Amino acid sequence: MYSLNVPLPSSVTRLAGRLARDLPRARARPRGEHTLVLKRLGGGDHADYARLEARARDVLGGTVPFGVRATGVDYFEMAVTGPSPVVYLAVESPELRALHERLCAEFDAVERMEGEAYVPHVTVARGGDPAAARRLVEREIEPVEWAVDELVCFDADRGQWVSRISLPA
Asked: E strands along 53-169, which residues?
């Protein structure tokens, strides 16, 4: 599965790591594995990648850099896939949501995760004690803002970044 992701500044990944320490029984994201998924593109074998990236670049044409903001801590009580609960940093950006919708018009939305169900977020940790997750959600954080001037394509099967798309695209 290939996906289009927003690169994260170190301030966001450090914050996620600090928050994860308060969820000792949960599985925290390892350093370097935090992501903000914009849209899953599909595919799976390497031959699909060039076609998927070309389609994504067409949709992204004219997209200019935009701002995003991590605003707080929240959680999914029941994850669509994998261990629950999922504690995450909530991300706000009207431009990010609009771009997600543009991409959903070209690439099928993953049911229960994309389209109307899309929740922009950075996963802090999965599983563990639900009461600890609820307590962490009550914590206020200093919002973190950053500018998105590129997107990265990620190959989930191989666990690696495949390419970068600079904005404006």
From this structure: 66-76, 86-92, 121-126, 144-148, 150-155, 160-166
